[in-house]
Amino acid sequence: MKLRTFSPKQRTAVKWWCDPAYKGYDAVICDGAVRSGKTAAMSFGFVLWGLGCFPGGDLALCGKTITSLERNVVRPLCSLLRDAGFSVQEMLSKRYFEAEGCGRRCRFYLFGGKDEGSAALIQGMTLCGVLFDEVALMPRSFVEQAIARCSVQGGKLWFNCNPEHPYHWFYREWIRKADEKRALYLRFTMDDNPGLSREVRERYERMYSGVFYDRFIKGLWTVSEGLVYPMFSREKYAVSVLPERFTRYVISCDYGTVNPTSMGLWGESGGIWYRIREYYYAARREGISRTDEEHYAGLVQLAGDLPIDCVVVDPSAASFIACIASHGKFRVCKAENDVLTGIRKVSDVLTAGKLRFHESCADILREFTQYCWKENSTGDCPKKEHDHAMDDMRYFVTTAMERREGMQFAAFSIRR
Questions:
Q1: What share of the chain is helix, strand, coil (3-state, %, to 5)?
Q2: What H or E segment, with its residue span, contains residue 106?
Q3: Percentage, residues of the chain above pLDDT 90
Q4: Distance CA 176, CA 189 (A)
Q5: 187 DSSP β-pair partners
């Protein structure tokens, strides 16, 4: 992408710091839809600003993780800079890169802000400016520590993100107070990205629904309400006849003692995963609890004689994980358990038509119609009820479904 192909809003994000109309501004905030071109424009402008105003200076780019920052920001940015005639020296193993143009050079350090402990990584530095990519995904402690590092006279802050809920601290403290913070606020839509074709734009619009459509397509900071998966309908997703052949099998498990234990057997056919059958035991409903060994017997019956790739289990179910591992029959994978990320990924694959459910799986079909967002919550929070099959499905999608052929589960697998 060349500067002349930037849209008007992207050009503003690139050059706001040298525009007399924004003299005296200390920050820029770009939010809005996915694939709207805000990251490319902002990161390019950040480097131009650093070279223009702080030759020889140290600056920082921050992302949720170093890996996501390198993949989503640094590599595309370095390519764009080279296309524009700049010299770039990547020292990613040392967590920085250097850019040079017109005889000026700056160093750009890379930081990941994934949790509260990340604030210590940036503590003690002196920076001319900081760019936060996907700032809404970072803990407040990390962001505020990085802001405190930007102590050089004339330093500026650059923020971008996709919207979250309107109770989010960044929305309340920065977007709603943009004038008070002397921050330029730019809201992007996919129309602001000239590199996005109409076909691709329409594909992204089909990918999301409900609260995620409002946030990622409309670019709105909206409250989550109603059903968690409003796109689901029994007519569209339930099937009475299964494919004759499956290429892989996975079992997912949400374990409970007093609460229900839910397990689902999944099979892949033609790029679509089918919930073939399920095990659902509610101790309160049945009037008696089951032991780990009794649940394991249910797991064995659910699997039958099928070659199970792995059993994905709630990571907090330590005793049941140990029970499965002790028998040595199945490979156990501890599930990824970020609830909101998991809900978004399940929404994505449902909307993309990659999940189906046999009509005999009555409990997951029932829970789809009952699983709701908590009302009057100060954030995104689903109700902790009718969520056991929902959780085992979420574990399956986030931990097993995204697996690529040949990828090993060594980091997560437990064997006897």
A1: 40, 25, 40
A2: strand 104-112
A3: 78
A4: 19
A5: 31
Query: Is the separation of the CB atoms in 264 and 252 below 8 Å?
Result: yes
Backbone dihedral angles phi then psi of residue 156, each to the nearest 5 degrees: -135, 160
- Low-confidence residues of the chain: pLDDT under 50: 1-3, 404-416
C-beta of residue 46 within 8 angstroms of C-beta of residue 120: no
pLDDT at 403: 58
d(CA 333, CA 312): 5
Pairing of strands 129-133, 156-161: parallel
Distance of CA 96 to the CA centre of its chain: 24
Sole residue written with tokens 């499905």: 393
pLDDT number for residue 415 = 43
pLDDT of residue 412: 38
Q: Which amino acid is at 416?
A: R
Phi, psi of 76 (to 5 degrees): -60, -35
Tokens of 310: 């792995």
pLDDT at 190: 95
Helix (H, G, I), strand (E, B) or coil at 176: coil
* 115's tokens: 């949790």
Question: How far apart are the C-alpha atoms of 350 and 208, rounded to whole Å?
Answer: 9
Distance CA 298, CA 284 (A): 18
- Buried/exposed 13-26: b ≥16 CB within 10 Å, e otherwise: bbbbbeeeeeeebe
With 0-12 CB in 10 A as exposed, 13-18 as middle and 19+ as buried, what is 244?
exposed
What are the φ/ψ torsions at residue 290 (nearest 5 degrees)?
-110, 150
Residue that the structure tokens 């690139």 belong to: 14
Q: What are the counts of helices (DSSP H) followed by strands (DSSP E) for the chain?
A: 16, 16
Token pair of 308, please? 């199970």
Say which amino acid occupies 189. T
Distance between CA atoms of 263 and 280, rounded to whole angstroms?
6
